[in-house]
Structures are given as C-alpha cells and as structure tokens.
Amino acid sequence: MSSILCIEDDAAVADHIADGLRAAGYQVDIANTGKRGLEMAQAGHYTAIVLDRMLPELDGLTLLTRLRDAGNQVPVVMLSALASLDERVRGLRAGSDDYLTKPFELSELLARLEAVQRRAAPAGEVTKLVEGDLELDLLARRVTWAGRRIELQPREFRLLEYLVRHRGQVVTRSMLLEGVWDYHFDPGTNVIDVHVSRLRKKLDEGGAGSIVQTVRGTGYRVGTEPQPA
What we know:
four-stranded antiparallel β-sheet; alpha/beta
C-alpha cells in the first residue's frame, strides 16, 4: 500500500490532508516540525512526501536539500503560501518534484501525488495488477472491469488488492486480518465477512461476477478460472 509522509506544522491543514489521503486509500504519517520530518523521511519507506515550505526547527528547502544530498529520491510535492515565480523555482531547484501554492484543492494535491509517484516508479515496479478483465491501478487507487470503473471504498480496495496480489492462493482470515486490517489477533467479529460481501456486490454490479470465491472452511481466493469442485 502506498504510504505518504505529510510534513506540515499547521495541525488543521495536516489533518485535512491526512483525512483526504486516507479516504483515497493511502497510509499517512504526519510530522509537525522540519527536524522530525527529516528524521521520518530518512527512516521510513514512503512513496511520496507532502512538504510544507515554512516549518519550525528546519525549513522545507533545507530539509529537502539535506534529503537529496543523502541520496533520498522519494517524490516530493512542496506546499507554500509563497506563490511568486522565484519561490517556485527555488523549490524545484532544491529538489521538489512539484510545487503547489496555498490555498489548494485536495483533489489537485491527490492528482499531483499520483503524477509524481507515476514518474518516479522504477522500471519493472508494479503499478497495476491485472486478473483477466479486472485491473487495479495502484497509484490512482482505481478499479476497472473490462474498462468500466468500479467505485470502491479504501478498505474495499485494500481487500481486493491483497486478494489479487495472492491470486490463485487460498487467503485465510488470519492473513486478511493482518494484511488488510493490521490486526495480529482475531477480534471475534464478522468484519471480514461484511467487507467481502460488500466487495462482491460492487464487483458483481460492475460485471466482475464471482471473481472473489469462497473456499469453504478456509478463506477466499481470487481467480477468473472456475473453482475446482
């Protein structure tokens, strides 16, 4: 799953960004100072960073310069109220992949994050999963069946992604709890059954039929081939 680091000292802005990214299916960490942001960026494995220009302890340009000098090439979208051409050029020359001025629309930030991640994806890195006519765009968090869009909630997308990544295998409840919900114990609820049921309904409405199959007494599997009797 794509993981974004948001380095923003304004708590309200950081929460707004994080809520929007999580709703789009991303995992999000927040740092509220430049120093903490640099530490997290160097220690973590993020697919992109949202970086505020003005930060306490360490400003965004200095943070970015240090990150690039250390060889870290994670894609960065810089946010700033400084909208002049000179400031945008400074941000790009410091190593940012894109520069977005405040105030901004969350939808534009999402689109720019998708773009910088797509450009940065190394040759051979998986950005799409395909199973028959089913296609998952992992950067845009989009699902289609034979070209037809199927709207899924973030958790439903993560569930389907996990199943497709394990295509042909039987995926147990324990695997789903740990891989999709990050539970290392069984909460004793029917959370998996509820989400699988919702996912199946949406896939069926989108034309995907019974691509998510139940393996009685064991778990689930994804496949376009009929399940053996």
